[in-house]
Amino acid sequence: MTKKDVLQIGMIGLGTVGTGVLRILEKNGEEIRHKLGVGLEVKRIAVRDPHKPREIEVDPSLIVDHPDHVVNDPDIDIVVEVMGGVDLARQAIARALENGKFVVTANKDLMAQHGLELLAIAKNQNRNIFYEASVAGGIPLIRPLKNSLAANHIEKVMGIVNGTTNYILTQMSCEGKEFSEALAEAQEKGFAEADPASDIEGLDASYKLAIIAALSFSSKIDMKDIFVEGITNVKLRDIRYAQELGYAIKLLAIGEETEEGLQLRVHPTLIPADHPLAAVANEFNAIFLEGDAVGEVMFYGPGAGSLPTGSAVCADIMDAARCLQHEVENGIVEATFGTKKVVPMEKQQSRFYLRLKAKDEPGVFASLATAFGETKVSLDMIIQKRSDAETAEIVLVTHGVSEGNFQKALDTIEAMPAIRSINAILRVIE
Ligand SMILES: NC(=O)C1=CN([C@@H]2O[C@H](COP(=O)(O)OP(=O)(O)OC[C@H]3O[C@@H](n4cnc5c(N)ncnc54)[C@H](OP(=O)(O)O)[C@@H]3O)[C@@H](O)[C@H]2O)C=CC1
Ligand SMILES: N[C@@H](CC=O)C(=O)O
After folding, report:
1. 170: Cβ below 6 Å to ligand 2?
2. pLDDT band at residue 330, thresholds of 50, 70 and 90?
3. Widest CA span of the chain, in angstroms?
4. Which has the least CB within 10 A, 154, 225, 285, 312?
5. Would residue 146 show up in a list of annotated catalytic residues for this protein?
6. How far is CA 247 from the centre of its chain?
7. Does the CB atom of residue 83 touch ligand 1 within 6 A?
8. Dihedral, CA of residue 20, residue 22, residue 24 and residue 26, to nearest 10
9. Which letter, b or e, does each residue of 224-248 get, where b requires 16 or more Cβ atoms within 10 Å of its Cβ?
10. In 10 A of CB 397, how many CB atoms?
């Protein structure tokens, strides 16, 4: 490799993240050049619609209408994929690597599902893919997992890794907003995915968990092994009951290595109001890691948005530039990934929050307690309120129980004549 005065960047995508990247390169370009000893110049930008008005002024001659024009340009040294989606992004990144370019991506859907295949292509080409922005936006997490914490056996990772859902839950619980209003705001602010179903149904968080879990537990992670439940069924009513019981509701991604195997799950969770994660508001994310040597470490910061995510992408561009400048072939060496056993969800333990409606008549509560007792589910907290003249709303929190046993208890309860409806089931942690 020959040293250059300026390295050429090719971007694929100029939406929320791409705009943030350009703004940072423009504003801090001189400082970045000083830190790197080489300048960075954006040579081409692929977008879907070249005629769309942009939030940022861009020389029209840079704009092209297909990623191929970026990945096949022989002058481009580093390809930055901030387009999203899987198939086209996968093809473009594979081609960029085959053409000898370093790649930076913010695409968690792609890295969770095809990361190993792309990293193998990169290794073959003596190149690398940098993907810090794919998890938790601006928070440094991938590098600490690969480097600073690499000597630890990591036992547990747990956190809030989706800014959109955390924004929605915060706005519902603190401002009393409706779900749809809060989602529209998150979209307006650029936190949500192009298809926000990925956020609210928990998929985005599950892709991020797959990436963090692979690095934490040095294991390949198959998406089908992650239990995923989003926040679409979380009602303001449950947020208020949770508050009454001393909890907040957050969408958590949890990965744990136990003697039985890996436990991997994403679901809305009641967490104690004084837990540090309960205070993480709006688009902010936070991740706890427990390493056998370091103990507990918490990462906190903005998990979505144009400049925070752009910050992580630009740092990756700088790492790729350092590799090129210092003739390091592939930069940070990737971890090796084995295949660890995964514990099926029905065998995992949880505490449960259950909200139901029952006939307001004597003995209902006793028969509920009996039904739970028969399946070895014990009850911890209870709220009972009259709903109308004949109906009571009952909120129960169980002690720890396997998912399988809880489901059996639920089947029995649903069949009881006094039970009118089961309205909410959520998991609880201490
Ligand atoms: N938004 C955020 O806070 C974060 C996003 N990410 C990830 O970053 C990536 C980009 O997200 P974001 O910036 O929000 O997405 P946007 O939807 O805002 O931008 C996507 C960009 O890609 C371009 N594009 C889409 N399809 C094509 C295509 N077929 N060919 C060429 N260009 C195309 C669009 O072009 P056009 O402008 O013409 O429509 C647009 O410029 C995603 O992988 C996302 O998951 C990661 C962390 C945070
Ligand atoms: N849609 C994502 C964007 C960042 O990854 C989120 O809301 O966290």
Report:
1. no
2. low
3. 84
4. 225
5. no
6. 22
7. yes
8. -150
9. ebbbbbbbeebeeebbebbeebebb
10. 20
The answer on pLDDT for 21 being more than 90 is yes
Residue ID of nearest Cα to ligand 1 atom 46: 106
pTM greater than 0.90 (yes/no)? yes
Taken in order of first residue, the domains within the chain and their CATH numbers are: 6-137+306-325 (3.40.50.720), 149-302 (3.30.360.10), 346-428 (3.30.70.260)
pLDDT per residue as tens digits for the range 213-232: 999 999 999 999 999 999 99
ipTM of the complex: 0.99
R_g of the chain computed on alpha carbons: 24
CA 399 – ligand 2 centroid, Å: 33
CB atoms within 10 A of CB 326: 11
Give me the catalytic one of 3, 208, 341, 347.
Answer: 208
Query: How far is residue 95's CA from residue 85's CA, in Å, rounded to a whole number?
Result: 16
Ligand 2 pocket, 205 CB below 6 A?
no
Single-letter amino acid, residue 106: A
Identity of the residue numbered 21: V
Does residue 10 have its Cβ closer than 6 Å to ligand 2? no
CA within 13 Å, CB half, 320: 31
Amino acid type, 409: A
- Binding residue positions: 12-19, 108, 193
C-alpha to C-alpha distance for 34 and 29, rounded to whole angstroms: 9
